[in-house]
Design a protein that fits this description.
The chain has about 240 residues and is α+β, with helices and mostly antiparallel strands. Helix content is about 25%, strand content about 20%. The protein is built from seven helices and five strands. Strands 1-5-4-3-2 form a five-stranded mixed beta sheet. The longest helix is centred in the first third of the chain and has 18 residues. About 35% of the residues are buried.
Length: about 240
């Protein structure tokens, strides 16, 4: 579990000036200044420097950064792209190729068995680009992430997490409420001998997230389109 070095993000590895310059980015170079501020102001835990909890938290944030923002799997450093698998709520594990077929982005994280007419967010219709734009528009200050507890350390890491943000932008035709949206869950990260992630399992209720995003009044679409066209939101974390 690599630690951030001087000149890069405080919570994510592999964002030094040289690494940023030599990386292919999906939405441009990600800027975490705003979401880091949200994280620091809203976190419920401040882990000691060098603690297992801090290392796991930074690993989680680094993994998220690479999965969402890097276009070439050969540039992934926090995980082994040849062995990596992902599973949500006990579903069959899928590899990076299969994740790509789902559209990438938030789609693997929001898989659902609900009938299409009941889906507030339909991963079958979204791409990595459209899903990223939808959530960065909804959460203009980002969607912060913290570790609440680590139950076991590497190579098999089991932890509880909290994801939160403020719905200050529209989502799928629904007006912003300004309310905090929180998602709690458990995860298992399995690491190899080089401390790279080879297996990820997440367990949470997507309804915790989507339920809050669908509370706002219906819009005619113009406000949402305005947010989606903003170039600044496209490269936020």
């Amino acid at each position: 579990m690599a630690s951030p070095s001087a000149g890069q993000d405080n919570y994510r590895s592999y964002l030094s000036e040289e690494e940023v310059k030599n990386t292919k980015w999906r939405f441009g170079v990600p800027n975490y200044d705003v979401v880091n501020k949200l994280f620091e102001e809203g976190r419920t835990k401040i882990w000691p420097s060098g603690s297992l909890e801090e290392k796991v938290q930074n690993l989680l944030k680094t993994w998220e950064m690479e999965i969402f923002h890097k276009t070439s799997i050969d540039e992934f450093k926090s995980l082994d792209p040849k062995k990596y698998t992902f599973s949500l709520n006990g579903r069959k594990p899928i590899n990076l190729e299969e994740i790509g077929k789902l559209g990438g982005g938030y789609n693997p994280l929001l898989q659902t068995s609900l009938p299409e007419k009941l889906r507030g967010y339909n991963p079958d219709e979204e791409t990595a680009d459209s899903s990223h734009r939808a959530f960065t528009t909804t959460f203009p200050r980002g969607f912060a992430l913290e570790i609440l507890q680590v139950y076991t350390g590497p190579p098999l890491i089991v932890f509880k997490f909290r994801h939160w943000g403020y719905m200050e932008g529209p989502f799928k035709g629904h007006a912003p409420t300004g309310e905090i949206i929180e998602l709690y869950g458990m995860a298992i990260f399995e690491l190899d001998e080089q401390m790279r992630v080879v297996k990820v399992e997440f367990f949470y209720d997507p309804g915790q997230l989507l339920g809050g995003l669908l509370k706002g009044a219906s819009l005619d679409g113009s406000a949402e389109e305005q947010g989606l066209s903003c170039p600044v939101l496209r490269n936020t974390g």
